[in-house]
Amino acid sequence: MGSPFDIAELKWLLCVHVEDRLTLARLARTSTCFRDWALDVLYGSQMQVCSLIRCVPSQVLQAAKTKNVLLHDMVERNQKRIMTYFRRVKNLMILDREEELWVPILRSLALLVPCIFPNLRELILSDFNPLYMTSPSSFLPSSLHTVTIVFKHDEFLAVWFPAMSSRCPDLRCFFFPGIDSREPDPLILSSLLSLRSLQKVSLFDSISPSTFLTLASLPSLENLTLPSIQQRESHEMLPSSSSLPSQSFDSLRMLRLFQINHLDQLPDFPKGSLPSLRRLEVMNCSQWICERMLEHISSVPLEELDVYGVNIDSPDDMDAFFEHLLPFSRSLEKVSIRRARRNSPALQSWPFGQSCGRLLSLPRLKELVIKIGPGFTMSQSDVDRIGNRWKGLTVFQLRLPRRMEEYRAGLSLEGFTGFVAACPRLEIAAVPFSALDVPLDPSGPHNTHLHRLAIGSAPIKDGIGVAKFLQQGFPHIRHFLYSQLHMGPAELNCWTQVEQRLMWIDDF
After folding, report:
1. Are 34 and 87 in contact (CB under 8 A)?
2. Could you tell me which of 312, 296, 308 has the C-alpha nearest to residue 263?
C-alpha cells in the first residue's frame, strides 16, 4: 500500500496551509518529498523582483552591481539554477526599485530562454522600463490571464498589445490607465479586438469613441470599468445606438462608470442593451450621469447598485434619485450609496421616510448602505414599514447623526429591538436609536444573526443595563462601534462599559 504522501494534492494542501514561511523554507531544505511543493508555495507570489533576485548566485549579483562585462556568461552558466525558482512564479509585481540589480540579470536571461517566467498567471507593472520594449515576449507566457499596467505609455502599449494578442490567447483580465483618447493606434485596437477571451477590462483615463466601439465588440466581456469618452475633434460624434455592433455587451454582467461628469461623455446605450447586466457601479460621477444610466438599463433585471462619490444635497434630491430605482423592483437586492465628494450643507438630519421611502418599493432588498448626508433619523412608522417589506434584510447601515439630541426624538431601544426582531436575518446594522430607557424584560433572544452594530453617539444613562439587554437580546454581537468624538464624558463611560461587557463574553 502506497504512502499518503505520494498524493500530489495532499502535499500541496499541506504546504499551502503552513502559515509560517520560515517553517516552509526549512521544509523545502530538509525534505525531498515536500521540496518542490514547498518551493512552489514560497515563490508562487512575488511582490517585487528584488526578493526573487536573492535566489541568484552571489557572484552573479556582484557582477550585476559592478556592471561586469562577464555578467551574461555568468547568467548562462547558472541558468538552470535561476530558472528553478523563476519557473515557480505565478503572480509577480515588478517595481522600479533597485533597478541596477534586476534589469541586467533579466536582460541577459531574456536572451537565453523564450520566457523568463514560463508559468506566470498574473503580472503587475508599476513603472515603465525600457526592458519591456526590447523583450515583451519574455514576460508574456501563454499561461498569463491577468495583466495590470499602472503607468500610461502609448509606445509601450503599441508594442505590448500585439505581443499579448499573439502570445496570450487566454488573457482574461486587463487593467490599465487607458489608450490615448486623441489618436489611438489602429494596431492597438486591432490587437485588443483579437483578445477574444477577455472577460474583465478596467480603464481609468478617457478613451476615444473608436476604443469604446472596440470594447463593444469583445464577445466574452463580463466586467468593464468605463471612463469618460472624449472626441478627438469637435465634429466627431459619440457612439450611438445605431453605430454599436450587434449583440454588443451581451455578456456584460458588471459595469463601472468612472469619473464621468457630463452627458456628452456617456455613450448612448440602446434600449434593451446590456441584457446580462446584474451589477452597476458609479464612481465619482455626477448625479445626472447615474440617473441617465439607470434610465438606459431600466429594462434590465439589475440586482446590485453601488454609488460612490455622488453629491445628493437634500432629502428631496435623494427621493428623486431613488425614483429611478422603481423599474428594478422585482430584481434589486443590494443598494449602496457612499461618500459624497463634498460635505452636505444640511445641518439637520434627514428623516428616513422622507428621503428613502421609495426604497420600500423594492421588496427583494437584502442590503442597504447609505453613508451620505448629515445623518438619518428613524421613526416607529419607518420600523413597521421596513419589517413588513424587507423580511430578508441582512445589512442595514445608515449614516448616523452626530448630535445626541437628534437621537432622542427617534427610536427608543425598545423600538430598535422591534426593528431587528422584524428582520430575523439581519447581520450588520447601523441604526439611530436612543438607549436612555432600558426595557425591564428583554424577552430575548430577538435576533441570533446580528454580529455587528454601530450606534453613533446615541444617548445613554445605564451602561450595565444596556449591556445586559443587548447580551440577552442579541447574543452574537461581537463588533460594536460608537463615536467617541461627539459624546460627553458620562455617555462615553457608559458605552465603554457596554463595549467591555460585550467583548468580555468572547472569553467563554
Report:
1. no
2. 296
Strand 350-351 relative to strand 334-338, pairing: unpaired
Q: Are 267 and 229 in contact (CB under 8 A)?
A: yes
Sequence-distant (≥ 6) Cβ neighbours of residue 190 within 8 angstroms: none
pLDDT at 165: 87
d(CA 455, CA 483): 8
CA 495-498-502 angle, to 5 degrees, is 145
**In which residue are the cell numbers 442597504 written?**
368
What CA dihedral angle connects 145, 149, 155 and 158, to 10 degrees? 20
Other beta carbons within 10 angstroms of residue 426's beta carbon come to 25
CA 334 to chain centre: 15
Closest by CA position to 11, among listed 27, 26, 33 = 33
pTM above 0.90, yes or no: no
How many CB atoms within 10 Å of residue 400? Answer: 25
* Single-letter amino acid code for the residue at 283: M
Nearest to 206 by CA among 264, 288, 281, 164: 264
C-alpha to C-alpha distance for 119 and 16, rounded to whole angstroms? 18
Flag residues of the chain having pLDDT under 70. 1-6, 96-100, 178-185, 231-247, 271-272, 340-347, 441-445, 504-508
CA distance 501 to 508: 12
- Tens-digit pLDDT profile for residues 371-387: 988 889 888 888 889 98
As a whole number of angstroms, the distance between CA 99 and CA 405 comes to 59
Tell me the C-alpha distance between 315 and 321, whole Å: 10
Cα distances (Å, whole numbers) of residue 286 to 42, 110, 135, 334? 46, 48, 43, 21
Look up residue 255 and give its three cell numbers. 459595469
Q: How far is CA 369 from CA 51, 131, 407, in A?
A: 41, 46, 19
Helix/strand/coil for 36: helix
Contact (CB, 8 A) for 144 and 123: yes
